[in-house]
Specification:
By secondary structure, the protein is mainly α. It has helices at residues 15-33, 38-50, 58-82, 86-107, 111-126, 130-157, 177-198, 206-215, 222-246, 253-273, 278-296, 301-330. Helix 3 runs parallel beside helix 5 (111-126) and helix 5 (111-126) runs parallel beside helix 7. It is globular. Mean pLDDT is 81; it is low at 337-345.
Length: 345
């Protein structure tokens, strides 16, 4: 899958400020609108802007929320049709996962990641019935509208230095993409059953943390990849624990927004300057905001941040290394003929 290259300090020195500002504005929208699923509204705008590079691109900013709305409507229909038939439901979800991973590995296009993530979220929530699916669909619609306001506002307040627009150049990794997609679809289906068992719908954004360990791409050996995927999940969990631990000392909205901003500033600084793979940090921030919003929406903060996160991490850790082992045993990557350059995996 295509990975946006590390943002350039020369092109966008205030990337971290804009990232933190987007997180704070998203949490402000959560406090103002009081949505049924605050985790979606807290995390989605940040996830959309984190992958933006260089100058503000209006078409890209509009297209991403529109695509999210379309995918939410399609997945809601899909789950409502097949969920009453458990065996058929499991098989069709495997096919959706396989299609998403096939896009990622076969073309390098990021659309496959959106398909996989949306499929996981709706399949988990779908186990609670069609009413929960409708709530999730409406939450994505409302959040997309918030993103259409928050992202341009963040760019207007903290613009990039360069006027050059971002141009994506996805490069497929080569190899037997069918085998790689089948491995990931099978492991993700097993992980989905784990999520069904341990995760209530109110914490369904934790499913993103679990699924991202299979979607998150790097260019190195399979076990190195598994460690990088887990780094993103652990960073997000650590940031959430830090914010939730400090916020009760002065539980006021400006304090929360300030903590969220500081978390985003730290992540953005690491993305710009840390020599380690930057996507681990970039993917950590949306996960952290989802955890923070979920923790603050429940009365038992410790149980939300520790127990459920540990359960999710256990499943994600197992899934990441199972994929790494299966990749190693099948050797489908060794048949790759394409040369992968920086910015693609």
């Amino acid at each position: 899958m295509y990975v946006p290259p590390r943002p350039s300090v020369a092109d966008d020195p205030h990337y971290g400020i804009r990232l933190g500002l987007t997180g704070a504005l998203s949490f402000g929208a959560v406090a103002l609108l009081d949505p049924a699923m605050p985790t979606v509204m807290a995390a989605l705008p940040v996830g959309l802007i984190a992958g933006q590079r260089k100058a503000f691109a209006p078409v890209r900013v509009i297209a991403a929320p529109v695509m999210v709305c379309v995918m939410a409507a399609l997945m809601a229909w899909f789950v409502n049709v097949f969920q009453p038939l458990p065996v058929v439901y499991a098989g069709t979800m495997w096919l959706v996962y396989f299609l998403g991973f096939g896009m990622i590995l076969g073309t390098g296009a990021p659309f496959g990641m959106l398909l996989v993530i949306m499929a996981v979220l709706f399949s988990v929530v779908g186990m609670s019935g069609s009413a929960a699916v409708a709530v999730l669909r409406d939450a994505f619609f409302a959040t997309s509208l918030v993103a259409l306001v928050v992202i341009p506002l963040a760019y207007a307040l903290v613009p990039a230095r360069t006027r050059e627009m971002q141009v994506d150049t996805p490069v497929p990794p080569g190899g037997d993409a069918v085998m790689g997609a089948a491995i990931r679809a099978s492991v993700l289906l097993a992980l989905s059953f784990w999520l069904y068992a341990v995760m209530p719908p109110s914490d369904m954004m934790l499913a993103i943390m679990a699924a991202m360990v299979l979607v998150f791409p790097t260019r190195r050996a399979v076990f190195f990849e598994a460690r990088q995927r887990m780094r993103a999940t652990l960073y997000g969990s650590a940031l959430a624990v830090a914010v939730v631990a400090v916020y009760p000392l002065s539980p006021k909205l400006p304090i929360l927004l300030g903590l969220v901003f500081l978390a985003g500033l730290w992540v953005g600084t690491k993305v710009l300057h840390d020599p380690r793979p930057h996507m681990a940090y970039q993917n950590a921030y949306p996960a952290a905001l989802a955890l923070i919003a979920g923790a603050l929406s429940t009365q038992d903060l410790g149980q939300a941040v520790v127990s459920r996160v540990l359960l999710t991490l256990a499943g994600a850790f197992t899934a990441a290394y199972l994929v790494a082992i299966l990749d190693h045993l099948t050797g489908w990557r060794t048949r790759a003929a394409a040369t992968v350059t920086d910015g693609a995996a």
